[in-house]
Amino acid sequence: MILVVGANGMLGRDLMDLLGDRARGVDIDEIDITSIESVLKVVSEFKPATVINCAAYTDVDGCEANSEKAMEVNGEGVGYLAMACREIGALLVQISTDYVFDGGKGSPYQEYDAPHPLSIYGESKLAGEMNAAFSPEHLIVRTQWLYGLHGKNFVETMLRLGTEKDRLTVVDDQIGSPTWTVDLAKAIIALVDKGCRGIYHAANSDFCSWNGFAKAIFEESGLTVSVVPMTTVELNRPARRPLYSTLDCGRLVADSGFEPQPWRQALKEYLKLRAANQNAKGSTNGTR
Questions:
Q1: Where do the domains of the chain lie, and which CATH numbers do they carry?
Q2: Is 121 a catalytic residue?
Q3: Among residues 99, 121, 200, 244, which one is catalytic?
Q4: What are the pLDDT digits (tens) for 267-286?
């Protein structure tokens, strides 16, 4: 059995849908990963063969102001899960991020590249990677720029703003790979099923800037919005971001056989599914 921690989140819900009867899910109302007692109780109760940790404090700027919380959730909490997994011989799958890198390499990052986080968020997620190793059986999956049906994300923000404004200013000097949580979930499952261990990178293929991503969202949605470029310096957010943090996913493909689709194709599929879900809800509401 696979235990998904953070099962109600954006990635967790897609994992639960894809895993079906193979998985059980818990969220914050059932487990507090910052409490060793809570973690040991839940893991010993379920006795899973695999624990996938989707729980995280992901407010990048919020982490700068709440460094203790960031370290408790993203760092120490992973250590507690690793200890619990070690006790029962379970595999711990930890979801990590491109923010463990500084973005200065100039080419896609590989798993063996040295981390150098620029923010508290990145530091806390790197601490989580290190703590995951407390479990002899561990798998670390780094990803980036996530969006999906079940949570707040860049795509949903752009679609909302695109209905309110005809001109938006979006950063053009941060480069990465937008990643649909469904594709990430498929990659994680493929890695688990193939018995992979260690660090892997998993993201949709190809890359763009946030500005280019926004333009694609509007083009695919049929919205006419002018997207003006701006720099990260001009944006002036509390947390520093890596400027070029694309991830080389070659190891994922070679070892699991799963090849992520291009981000633009994933976006098309996401928007099609999103529209279908909205139409289904509308039909249901109309019959009441």
A1: 2-286 (3.40.50.720)
A2: yes
A3: 121
A4: 999 999 999 988 887 765 65
